[in-house]
């Protein structure tokens, strides 16, 4: 019995303690995640022997000192993280960890979503993925070339329109997934409704509301941590593996279309990984061909959502009107009116 | 008299321990609802201990529960949960005055009356302050329910503004006072826990020391300490031999209608017989003699 | 009035129980156990009986069993219910009322 073991829970504002956790994670070859709100630590006397964190609905940074493994400390950590999540009314949870812990977490009610490179696992405490896969299966279309696009469209531009139109022409059917996470300047509802209006003439397209499994804070946290310049490739790979093995295969997707990325480092890197991960045989699911489509340009510069946002901020409507479809332009004008 | 060499502390929030403590066969299992239980789990530990007390695995072993003080928001709730569940003993924490014991006695009586419990709940007062040590003599005599008093050293040394040491010099006065108070009131005396579970030698030294002082037993926090302590408390071969002789002489006298017998020139009277019986019980519990050896 | 609540731990010999109110007066139970499925029916019966004793229905109960004894499951479930109803137990002998 370990009589001197104490468990404590505190929020990330406690900088002295957070610094100690960072040292402990370093020692265990784990990175501190900047989005953690609540930490749980276990100490024996004054020595830290285990820790874990809660970021949104994700449990992560779970570590146990190498000399103290096999004593069930990880179960203590998970219990306290679960308690912390539940009192915040977060019931549907994810967790990141390493593959050696799959069994442990399975016994805590978590189901494996994906394992990547033998380094990282993502699990959830619901059967939401299974249900989502059933839904996707019901939306499956026949065809030789089933295309797919994942976009944020923040907001929907002529560039997006061009990418979708091209993909739609080349595909028997095209599935578009819109990033669901509310981490952009425009809300999810606005983003998806602008896409819907902007592509209403295309007949071979299904517009999917995104999910936790496509570029979400759960599957791809570093995508949303803007100030984190150092991009963790592992999460990008994980996200792509989930797309291929857990989603695309249920829709029979054969191709993924993507615009060339001149600006965003994270996105650029993501595209590079995409080819590597989707197009090579992996023994789990069919390969997916990645098709890069050059961005259309206006005034010799590629059209991008970030350029549109910049012009909007500068109130440069004369240039802006050339970069977005009429439907988006009308929506933006309305927003300006509202502001006044 | 029941011997209580080992009282094993079991945190009410540690489910694995609650479920397995009986396996280690301490003389008394002492469930804790007080200091070892975090504030957020006070309610769950209380419910857990309520059920554990009624479980068949604890039917053949003496049970005690350390409840929270009555002046805390948990005290009365704890008491209700454990008295209704049939605990043998309630350990009263932080006993400073006679009034503390009497208040606890009243509260227990009310619950017993309400549920019609006939077997009276016993009381063990833990003395954990200078004031408590000063009042120990009065405390020890104040209630017929009181089966013993115990030293709670962690809080006591804090009150004295010192720390615990391996030598235990800081506890000398308190140990002596508590022991004297208990003996004068003809109740039992128990020593505090030895908290460094890794220091087996230190533990052995301390048990020998407090046994020498006259303590009936000691609170323990680690099951591994039980057999070590029981070995130290085991009666010697010589005293077992003596006890057999006393019992035999007494039985012989009874059978033949003799009024008085003596061994080695000393009279075998009721207290001597009681002590011999106690020695044999202890020898049995220590595994030194079989159950049917007498 | 029932809120969401939880009790217990995921540690060995324990059980982690979540209780959530649902529409209607049914009792839904989601049970997963790290020990044999053999006991699933017994655990479910124990949960239903305990809830009946406490006059609780219209709830979804999620149970992560880590090899808990019956009295542990009962204690954790009761704690979760007390927390969900924000009531304190009154132990009337063997008859437990909410």
Quick take:
Chain A contains twelve helices and 14 strands.
Describe this structure in words.
The complex is a heterotrimer of chains A (340), B (294) and C (98). With 340 residues, chain A is of the alpha/beta class. In chain A, 39% of the residues lie in helices and 22% in strands. Chain A has two domains: 5-126, Gcn5-related N-acetyltransferase (GNAT) (Aminopeptidase); 130-339, Rossmann fold. Chain A has helices at 15-27, 73-87, 102-106, 128-138, 158-170, 188-198, 221-224, 233-251, 265-279, 305-313, 317-320, 326-339; strands at 5-11, 38-44, 47-55, 58-64, 94-97, 111-116, 120-124, 146-151, 173-178, 205-209, 255-259, 289-293, 297-298, 301-302. Chain A is globular, with a radius of gyration of 22 Å. Chain B contains twelve helices and ten strands. The two termini of chain B are 19 Å apart. Chain B has helices at residues 15-20, 42-54, 75-84, 98-115, 130-134, 136-141, 153-160, 172-184, 200-213, 224-233, 237-255, 270-285, and strands at residues 6-11, 28-32, 62-66, 89-92, 122-127, 146-151, 188-191, 217-220, 262-263, 266-267. Chain B folds into two domains: 6-233, TIM Barrel (Alpha-Beta Barrel); 237-285, no CATH class. Chain B is globular and about 65 Å long. Helices cover 31% and strands 32% of the residues of chain C. Chain C has two helices and six strands. Chain C has helices at 40-53, 70-85, and strands at residues 5-8, 15-21, 27-33, 59-65, 90-92, 95-97. In chain C, strand 5 (90-92) and strand 6 (95-97) form a beta hairpin. At the B-C interface, helix 1, helix 2 and helix 3 of B face helix 2 and strand 5 of C.
Key words describing this protein structure:
heterotrimer; A: 340 residues; alpha/beta; Aminopeptidase; Rossmann fold; 2 domains; seven-stranded mixed sheet; 14 strands; C: 98 residues; alpha+beta; Ribosomal Protein S5, domain 2; four-stranded mixed sheet; two-stranded antiparallel sheet; 2 helices; disordered C terminus
